[in-house]
Amino acid sequence: MRVHVLSRRSDAPIRASRHAASFHTWRPTGRDSLIDRAAAVARLVGADVCMAVDEAAIRTFAYASSGMPFQIAPIPSGVHFDAAHDKWQLAGVLSAERLPHPVTHLTGSEEAAAAAAYAARTPLLLKPRRASNGVGIVRFDTPDALVRYLARRPAAAGTTIVQEEIPGRDIDCSVLCRDGRVLAHTIQRATSPAPVPFQPSRAVEFVAHDEVLRVVKRLMAALSWSGVAHVDLREHTSTGRLDIIEVNARFWGSLLGSLHAGVNFPQLAALTALGLPLPEIAYRECRYASGAFAARAWLTTAMTGRASGVGPRETPFIHALTDPGPYLVELIDRWRAWATRPAAPGKAAALHEVAKMRDDREQLVAAPAGRV
Question: Mean pLDDT, to the nearest integer, of 48-62?
Fold first, then answer.
């Protein structure tokens, strides 16, 4: 497959990939809509399939899918996308389908917030209704602390949820679906704490887990889901019980990990869009770690002599060797962020990432159906 890229970012690292046959840009402030620009690029390069990869683009495609001027990879309907992406709507779906999930309340008035806080077990988490990667989550050890926090922030009413924190570890399921039926999946369990609270773990193991798959299949059927999704679940420490935490209605950060385990989700999505038969799909149980995690683990091994537990083939480095361009661009970008950071180390890079996520989220939330 020849891959052409259309990005909102002119500096996206993928522009340097040897796998990108061409690279094109689109700006939300321009005259053309995303769909118009995608159609123009598709005609220019002779594309057979257009594949949206992030939430803003998927939502735009979802609400305009009936009038698309090109073939698109499977995506959910706009209504089902919003039901999965909005944590409060998702809680309603999970309750209606009697699927396991944490006690969840919508923030509102101060009185409602107090009632929600005392109704839930502690610790408590305050979460934006529409966000991912742990952005905006605040933890409270007592209901009183949450009530005081919300009393000073009236804008949080209706835009956030309160949820009990589940003691345990993360276990996630990535899927490709068509009309609520799971066509391919991988399941990964976190093997190390996240470097920042509530963010994804940098090291995972791919496992078989029948109960996770059963629960996720029920959820995807309830949502009549089409396309990819990454479902975050929490496995209780004491009982092993599973709770669905959220649904990332997009391709996920550990996508190369799924490829490492033997499932190429973008390729399968393209084949599904073209109506072509899918190859036999199975994944192997294995480990996968980010490059940063592996580098720190190897440094610790060199200093202490303790085994790192991470092999070079269980990291992105094998891809960096065959396609180094994007990794070099990303390293340069990170170095520039570090070199221009404020007094607090790492703050510039963190603010840049949060700002990027906020821009994407604001576009996503503000966009009416079928428009950007």
Answer: 94
Residue 63 phi, psi (nearest 5): -80, -10
CATH architecture of 103-164: 2-Layer Sandwich (3.30)
* CB 85 within 8 Å of CB 130: yes
Provide the token pair at 43. Answer: 């005609």
Distance (Å, rounded) from C-alpha 72 to C-alpha 58?
10
Phi, psi of 26 (to 5 degrees): -145, 135
Buried b (16+ CB within 10 A) or exposed e, 79-98: ebbbbbbbbbbbbebbeeee
Q: What is the pLDDT of residues 295-316, one digit of tens each?
A: 888 887 777 777 777 888 899 8
263 contacts 186 by C-beta, under 8 angstroms: yes
Tokens of 77: 């309907």
In order, the DSSP letters of 146-206 are HHHHHHT-GGGTTTEEEEEPPPEEEEEEEEEEETTEEEEEEEEEE-S--SSTTSPPSEEEE
Q: What angle do CA 316, 320, 322 make, to 5 degrees?
A: 120
User: Can you give the residue ranges of every domain in the chain?
Assistant: 103-164, 168-325
Q: Find all residues with CB under 8 Å of 274, minimum gap 6, and list them.
A: 48, 49, 71
Strands 3-7 and 20-25: parallel
Residue 213 burial (C-beta neighbours within 10 Å; 0-12, 13-18, 19+): middle
Do the Cβ atoms of 291 and 260 come closer than 8 Å?
no
Q: Contact, 227 vs 74, CB < 8 A?
A: yes
What is the spatial distance between Cα 84 and Cα 105, in angstroms, rounded to a whole number? 16
353 vs 65, which has greater pLDDT?
A: 65
This prediction's pTM: 0.86
> Residue 134's Cα: distance from chain center in Å?
10
Angstrom distance (rounded) from CA 30 to CA 57: 16
Fold of 168-325: D-amino Acid Aminotransferase; Chain A, domain 1 (3.30.470)
Q: How far apart, in whole angstroms, are the C-alpha atoms of residue 213 and residue 264?
A: 18
242 sits in which H/E element: strand 242-248
Q: Give the tokens for residue 279.
A: 């190859």
